[in-house]
Amino acid sequence: MTFNYPQTGSSNVTTACPVLLASPVMTREKFSATSGLREGQIRGQIERGHLPVFHIGRLAMVNVAQLTWDEIHFVPCPIMTKDAFAKATGLREQQVESQLDKGNLPRRNIGRLALVDVSKLVRLCMAQKDPIHSY
Q: Beta strand pairing status for 107-110 and 113-117?
């Protein structure tokens, strides 16, 4: 796999840089730990519509995939075990398993393993209508 890293030439064109994304969605707590914002600040930004939310069943997750711009290309791990996805998102493993069973999280079966289909989840997150990029 090869990547084009930012380069500027005589045409002043910059190519995109890949970003390793552990998960396209995170709990408020996990996003707080990752971003450095306090949970109250995150809650306020969500209530004002400044942070995008992606619903997985009744769980409202921060839609990290939409906090980007077109020049960045995500390189997520295409599938994850339930425990790895739980660690990346801040959910409990039981919540992940429950949402997979309900069909609220994309699932990919490989043999007897039920894995989270992260690549499909990224596409769902990116396809969601984006009310926050009106600035």
A: antiparallel
